[in-house]
Design a protein that fits this description.
globular, five-stranded mixed β-sheet, single chain, about 270 residues, ATPase_NBD, 2 domains
Length: about 270
């Protein structure tokens, strides 16, 4: 490539901002389900719950045909101001960190860790301090980070609900994990007590909270639209939405929010 070619490319290179990732996902999903605007009356409302490995993001909007005064476009995506909301620390991998922290900090397991001088790290996004665990928490240690990583992998069958995961991986509520102590000495097959009920409750609490946040925000945003009686297509995006518990919680909370949405519309009519 000649220098002049490089200069030409540099001077004419341009990056423009398009649709957000959740909005682009919504359009692709709407097309997949044959929800494509064919005339000016076709307006498709959507909500995207993007539950990834590290974060949870929301997006609400509509998709319609472009109007005559919107030259150069065939379709229009209109956002309702929720893009970017969600939880920047709630994702599948971060949940695994939190579950690992619960297992590590179980009193039954702390004795083993202290005897073997094994340390671990605090989950990302955790704002609390844990003075009583100061001797087993070390965010600056590569060995502690490795131990957190290994515990996450040990709990993955539970999070992803692998086939017969309880019998295969957590017999007698024990999981064995290969770790390192603070001196870098291997600690193979270190046994840890795992209370699956407590872990299940933690998952339910954290996922349910963010699902409620999404649905309440959707109710508020959609009730302010002119055509608020339109159906709302909700899409579960992100790899972590494959977890069975996410769909179960959504089904439960959607049933609850439908009644709230109806009440919100009634109040809106009374005010007008």
């Amino acid at each position: 490539m000649l220098a002049s070619d490089s200069d030409f490319i540099a001077n004419n290179f341009e990056v423009t901002s398009g649709a957000s990732e959740p909005a682009a996902y919504a359009v692709c999903a709407l097309k997949h389900f044959k929800c494509v605007p064919k005339n000016e009356k076709d307006v498709f409302y959507y909500g995207v719950f993007d539950f990834g490995g590290g974060t949870t993001d929301f997006d609400f909007g509509l998709w319609r045909l472009a109007k005559d005064n919107e030259e150069g476009y065939s379709y229009v995506i209109k956002h309702f101001g929720a893009n970017g909301n969600g939880d920047k620390y709630l994702g599948g991998e971060n949940l695994l960190e939190r579950l690992s922290f619960i297992v590590f900090s179980d009193p039954k397991n702390l004795k083993i860790m202290r005897d073997k001088r094994i340390s671990f790290t605090i989950p990302r996004g955790e704002r609390k301090t844990f003075p009583s665990l100061a001797d087993v928490i070390n965010d600056d240690s590569n060995f502690a980070r490795f131990n957190m990583l290994m515990m996450k992998e040990a709990l993955r069958p539970f999070w992803e609900k692998w086939e017969n995961y309880q019998e295969k991986y957590y017999q007698n509520n024990i999981v064995e994990v290969n770790l390192y102590n603070n001196d870098g000495a291997p600690q193979p097959e270190t046994p840890f007590t795992v209370d699956l009920k407590i872990l299940e409750e933690e998952l339910d609490k954290r996922i349910r909270n963010v699902v409620k946040q999404f649905l309440f925000m959707m109710t508020d945003v959609m009730s302010k639209q002119e055509s608020s009686k339109n159906k709302i297509q909700i899409f579960l995006a992100g790899n972590s939405c494959k977890a069975k518990i996410v769909k179960e919680i959504f089904d439960q909370e959607c049933a609850n929010i439908q009644n709230l949405f109806k009440e919100t519309l009634k109040r809106k009519k009374h005010r007008t």
